[in-house]
Design brief:
Length: 56
Amino acid sequence: MTAIQPTKPEALLGFDNLLITPHLAGWSPEATAAQLEVFMANVTGHFSGSGAVVPV
């Protein structure tokens, strides 16, 4: 799966002291594991009748 990144900020590209990188923090193993943990807690809460941990 490829993440869609915003367009480059053309006005900033001429700076020598600028480093532009994609936002990838949400794809770290820790972030993925945390997302799965919250998802499972929500599913468990919903089906047990106690409610979602993080309601939307």
